[in-house]
Amino acid sequence: MSWSRAICAAVLGAALAGCGFQLRGQARLPFETLHIPGASPLVVELKRNVVAGTQSRLVSSEKDANAILGFTLETREKVILSFNTSGLVREYQLRYRVGFRLYDAKGRNYIPPNEIQLTRDVSFNDAQVLAKETEDALLYRDMQSDMVQQILRRIVAAKVPTDE
What we know:
The protein has 164 residues and is of the alpha/beta class.
C-alpha cells in the first residue's frame, strides 16, 4: 500500500513539475527603491504589500528613491441607485476612486497620471441601519485591498522611462 502511495505522489509531483506550475513568489518591480509619501490607510496597506511581496525597498526620501508613487486623489462616495414605492432608499452604490502617478526623481513617468474606480452595489433596509453601516465599512476595506492589488499589478507592468 505504501509503495502505491509513493508512486502516486511521484507521478503527481512529476506532472506538476512538467506542466510548469510554480508558486507565485515575489513580484519584480522595475526599480530597486520606492518612495510612497503619505500615511492614509491605503498608503499603509500598499507599503506593507510592497515590503512583503516584492524585492524592492521602501525609502523615506524622494532623493533616495528610483521611483516615487504619488497620489493625486482618494475619494469615497455613496450614490443612491433606486428608491422603493415609499420614496425611501432601496439600493445604493459605494464608489472608491484613487488617482496616482509613478515617476522617477527626474519627473519621467513610469506610469502617467491615471485613476482607478471601484464600485459595489448595496441593498438598503432602514430597519438594519447599524448592520448596513458595518457592511459599508467592510466593503470599503475590501475595496481598499482590491485597489492595492490593482495598483501593484500596474506597477509591476510599468516600463522604465527613457530619455526621449
